[in-house]
Amino acid sequence: MSSAVQAIRVLVVDDDAAIRDLLETVLRKDGYEVTTLEDPTRADAEVRAGKFHLCLLDIMMPGQDGVETLRKIRKIDKDLAVVMITGYPSLDTAVQAMKLDALDYLRKPFTVDELRTVVERVLKKKGLSRTPEEQLHRVIGETIRNLRKERSLTLKQMAKRTGLSVSLLSQIERAESSASISSLYKIAVALDARIQDLFGDF
């Protein structure tokens, strides 16, 4: 029986395109669903529509700074986990952000490891930490997708080879569903791989 894996949804609000691209690339690679915004004045509407778990919010932005943006977000979602990003840390903005329940700070320039550490810490505080099981689903999904593409196979061809539905195969690749041992065996045979190869470096 397959169990759905909750996708953690992240909103990135930053006027710096390079930072937005970096955050999106890293977080998507780590299995998060990411939406990016350049214009902070659209953040509250996005939060209202988006059901996000985490927001990475730059402090210094033209038109509307991060603290004001957070103030508007809090009127809509009091529980959203928020990390403030800044290249210019100051006690005043830190105090204002913490009063609005920002959970952490990420100081520019930051490394990918620092980003991952802060995200994991904040999600853990909110009880949204990715479990080893979720990470395993993600690794298996990525490995299957990579092996399938290396062999130039479509999901439809895989479905024909395995007897599994295109929908289930797609969900397994996107880590939205856990595969049974029987399904993994069929997938491994279809890919001319050993079942243990599907677990990547996990």
Folded structure, characterized:
This protein is α/β, with parallel strands linked by helices. The protein has two domains: 9-125, 3-Layer(aba) Sandwich (Rossmann fold); 132-199, lambda repressor-like DNA-binding domains (434 Repressor (Amino-terminal Domain), Orthogonal Bundle). The chain has nine helices and five strands. The protein has helices at 17-29, 43-50, 66-76, 91-99, 112-125, 132-150, 155-162, 166-173, 181-190, and strands spanning 9-13, 33-37, 54-58, 81-86, 104-107. Strand 3 (54-58), helix 3 (66-76) and strand 4 (81-86) form a beta-alpha-beta unit. Helix 2 (43-50) packs parallel to helix 3 (66-76). The model is unreliable at 1-5 (pLDDT under 50).
CATH superfamily of the largest domain: Response regulator
Query: Average pLDDT, to the nearest integer?
Result: 88
Tell me the strand percentage band: 5-15%
Largest beta-sheet characterization? 5 strands, parallel
- Which structural category fits the helices and strands? alpha/beta
Count every beta strand, where a strand is a DSSP E run of 2 or more residues. 5
- What is the CATH T-level topology of the largest domain? Rossmann fold
Distance, first to last CA: 22 Å
Q: Please identify, by name, the CATH architecture of the largest domain.
A: 3-Layer(aba) Sandwich
Strand order of the largest sheet: 2-1-3-4-5
CA-based shape = elongated
